[in-house]
Design brief:
This protein is mainly beta and 81 residues long. It has a single domain, classed as Jelly Rolls, CATH 2.60.120. 5% of the residues lie in helices and 57% in strands. It contains 1 helix and 5 strands; from the N terminus they run αβββββ. Strands 1, 2, 3, 4 and 5 form a 5-stranded antiparallel sheet that branches. The N and C termini lie far apart (23 Å).
Length: 81
């Protein structure tokens, strides 16, 4: 049985109710939904994505945290692997 976030981290669009992703590599996040707060390694807000933003892509780096609420999200490695 897969855990929450496994599909998204594997590059598949996954519907997430509420989850915190700890980013460990340079990666591109695709997001569409209610809310996603992206914090840097210091815990400072980098970007807040909301429903009004529609479907967006955002590069995130190691040490970042993505707090996703009621959204479809996926992560793609920048090197395509």
């Amino acid at each position: 049985m897969s855990r929450v976030g496994d599909k998204a981290l594997g590059g598949e669009l996954e519907t997430i109710s509420n989850y915190k992703f700890n980013i460990t590599e340079n990666i591109t996040m695709s997001f569409q939904g209610q809310s996603c707060n992206i914090l840097n390694s210091g815990g400072n807000l980098v970007k807040k994505l909301e429903e009004e933003d529609g479907f967006v892509e955002r590069d995130v780096m190691p040490g970042y945290q993505c707090y996703v609420m009621k959204a479809k999200v996926k992560f793609d490695r920048k090197d395509g692997l």
